[in-house]
Amino acid sequence: MIVFFNGQFLELEEVKISPYDRGFQYADGVYEVIRTYYGKLFRYQDHLERLKKSLEAIKIDYSEIDKLDSIIYKIIEKNNYTYDDFSIYIQITRGESYPRKHSFPSEKINPTVFISVTPLDDASNDNTGIKIIFENDFRWQKCDIKSISLLASVLANQHAVEEDAGEAIWNRDGYLLEGSHTNFWAIKNEEVWTAPLSNLILPGVSRKVIIEVCRNSGIKVSEQAVRENEINSFDEFFVSGTTSEIKPVVQINDWIVGDGKPGKITNKIHSEFNKYVQSKIWL
Questions:
Q1: Is 146 a catalytic residue?
Q2: Catalytic option among 74, 78, 146, 264
């Protein structure tokens, strides 16, 4: 598999990262996940802007950011994939610095840049629904930065796996904010609720698209968080993400939602989302 690493296209086995890389030692870096539809980067400018904001937030200066799209397409070309669509992973750390110290290095160092491309199967018709669980939110206060420090999310998602669930939703002070790697949505009386943008949730690109799709389809959206103790008053739930797209929630802990099948509004949103993708107006 061909990847991009620090200015070179290499076989994955050739990539060597220093143990003094600050991403390895401190999780001092950020990442971005993008996907393609029909071989083209989906909502690329939204992803690029989010990556820029994450880099600015942790003060990493990466001057080649506007070349990333051409690099991504070159990786796809070099791998000779027969697949139509891909997930793209971009990781940028502050770089290698010795000796080890917590503060930024006083001398200028080059960021470490890694990009890989993974083929995606078509999941647009996967609409069976998943179980979710709730997890007390023990993350830091800057969840809007797409940091590579993901241990909290790893542990929460592993807990979900152990509970035979598809996702864990963070509960902070009684409010349901987002999943370990998704945004969280609830529907009541045909109105869609999702937590407002703040330092406590990631500004999901799929979240932004879904809000646009809902409003263009006449579905009301309220950007407010759901209280955990009020979930029984809601009719439907789903989660969303770049590669997971829209996944209906049919079970929360031991509670079967509705009749245990994806709800009417969720199905409509899923259908309208697919129409938007297929329209290619985002190109």
A1: yes
A2: 146
